[in-house]
Amino acid sequence: MLNEVLALLRRPSTDVAWSTYRTPEHAIRHIQSLRQRVVWGDPFALTQLSFLFMPTGALQEISLSSGWSEEFLSLSSRFDAASVRYANSMQPWLIFAAVCAFAYIAFMLVRQYL
């Protein structure tokens, strides 16, 4: 599924102006890095990916301005289901760590905009 997101980001019409990324390549490198960290079992990477897929997250903003919002909705639903399966397969302490990371990132985002 992340490969599909990367393919969409590689389209020439990709517009990242309304996202947190400077260029499409910046977004691609970030997602590739997060994907590798998930493979290594890093629960914080899954949390960061979750933020990208959230409503008004960077990927939704890019999809809207780049013309692939319908594809994004499908990918987002698949991501949600996959992340639940992944979280259910983690050890309890990793789940706790992911929740802490989520809370920390949410706090930092709120603090940034206040």
Description:
With about 110 residues, this protein is an all-alpha fold. The protein has one domain (about 1-114). Helices cover about 75% and strands about 0% of the residues. It is built from 6 helices and no strands. It is globular and about 40 Å long. The model has no long low-confidence stretch (mean pLDDT about 85).
Strand content: under 5%
Uncertain runs are none
Instruction: Give the biggest sheet.
Output: none
- The number of domains: 1
Total DSSP E strands? 0
Note the total helix count: 6
- The radius of gyration over CA amounts to 14 Å
Question: SSE order, as H and E?
Answer: HHHHHH
* Percent in helix: over 70%
Give the end-to-end Cα distance, rounded to a whole number of Å. 34 Å
Coarse structural class = mainly alpha
Mean pLDDT, to the nearest integer, reads: 87
Report the principal-axis shape: globular
What distinguishing features does this structure have?
single chain; 114 residues; mainly alpha; 6 helices; 76% helix; 0% strand
Q: Brief description of this entry?
A:
Helix content is 76%, strand content 0%.
SSE blueprint and pairings:
Elements: H1 2-9, H2 24-39, H3 43-53, H4 58-66, H5 69-89, H6 92-113
Helix pairs in contact: 2-3, 3-5, 3-6, 4-5
